[in-house]
Amino acid sequence: MKHIAILGSSGSIGTQALEVVEAHPDEFCVEVLTVNSNAELLIAQAKKFKPNAVVIVDESKYQLVKDALQNDMIKVFAGEAALEQIVQMDSINIVLTALVGYAGLKPTIAAIKAKKMIALANKETLVVAGKLITQLAQENGVNIYPVDSEHSAIFQCLAGEWENKIEKIYLTASGGPFLGKDVEFLKSVKKEQALKHPNWTMGAKITIDSATLMNKGLEVIEAKWLFNLKAEQVEVIVHPQSIIHSLVQFEDGSMKAQMGLPDMKLPIQYALGYPQRLKSIFPRFDFTKYPQLTFSQPDTKTFRNLALAYDAMRLCGNMPCVMNAANEIAVDAFLHDKIGFIEITKLIENSMNSITHIKNPSLNDYIETDKESRIKALEMLG
Ligand code: MG
């Protein structure tokens, strides 16, 4: 029986993880649930899954949650610092990090230091501080199991191949809702259009990231750290059907791919159940419904975020941290109708050009860089 802490249980990954837990009561039980501010959902989840403890980051909702759970023998904590405390609980085996953005960094570090296995859904943690996180994981004997579907695909392809060198990996990208469109079209894009992803149902931030191809950029950097690769070993290929979730090419030229219908519950279940494959009732792939699987090069001239991510990865140091912070500010501004779709890229590019590059950042440098980048990006928004 694995005892799980779910950080970010009200989000898309968090709620699907609870569906996986519910389908496998003999394999998993929930130790901890945390949310940012959705008190109602946290209360409902806590009453159903009976965790040992819950955290609500929004302190103004502490009393509401406390009162609602007072007869359920569930400990209730509030505030951001509580996340770092709670992941250290003795009874936890694995921490699913399903927080959005930079917020995932500190709790993930705390969990690794407490020697908890990590099911990583929060890709921004590895983007911001991949070197530090992977070193820390190694020192503490902690495995990081990817939940991101592309990285789960690579991880599944690597099972039994740990001794064999990777020549290259291909991360597949759906291309998002604006595949094939030009810059003129993108100038008039509204958020309602950007929030409609063709294949995956996800939270708002990642859906916008998918439309701008920044999500793929973040995933390229995530892959570099997860699988210890160089920039030139990670390639993106557009595959609009999202059936092949990614591929590994070995030194003998052989390629392995992982396939299936797009459903995040599969990579979540693989990460939590690893090394076991657990039975599922997810819909099965039907070849007759997909007579063709197609592939093309990404258009990085129109969708420049992907090119910026490669730049950030090559420069390394604190540059991916700058890019991530600027992107979080830009996406938030777009979602609040403050900037247009095309301005997202400009804001990120200007931010990357305005922050001092640090080659070997400490944790404190990352924290400072994140802060400074956000302030600069907000200034540029005016
Ligand atoms: Mg992904």
Describe this structure in words.
The protein has three domains: 145 residues, NAD(P)-binding Rossmann-like Domain (Rossmann fold, 3-Layer(aba) Sandwich); 157 residues, no CATH class; 66 residues, Orthogonal Bundle (Rna Polymerase Sigma Factor, Chain: A), CATH 1.10.1740.10. Strand 3, helix 3 and strand 4 form a beta-alpha-beta unit. Helix content is 46%, strand content 15%. The chain contains 16 helices and eleven strands. The chain is globular. The chain has 382 residues and is of the alpha/beta class. The strands form two sheets. The chain has a seven-stranded parallel beta sheet, with helices on both faces. Strands 9-8-10-11 form a four-stranded mixed beta sheet, covered by helices on one side. The longest helix has 19 residues. The chain binds magnesium ion.
Short description:
This protein is 46% helix and 15% strand. With 382 residues, it is an alpha/beta fold. It is globular, with a radius of gyration of 20 Å.
**Quaternary organization:** single chain
Could you give a short account of the major beta sheet? 7 strands, parallel
Q: Give the overall form.
A: globular
Which regions are unreliable across 5 or more consecutive residues at pLDDT < 50? none
N- and C-termini, Cα separation: 52 Å
Mean pLDDT: 97
The side-by-side strand order for the widest beta sheet comes to 4-3-2-1-5-6-7
User: Which series of helices and strands comes N to C?
Assistant: EHEHEHEHEHEHEHEHHHHEEEHHHHH
Derived from helix and strand composition plus strand pairing, the structural class reads alpha/beta
List cofactors, ions and other ligands.
Answer: magnesium ion
Strand content: 15-25%
Name the helicity range: 40-55%
Number of domains: 3
How many helices? The count is: 16
Based on CA atoms alone, the radius of gyration comes out at: 20 Å
* Secondary structure: number of strands: 11
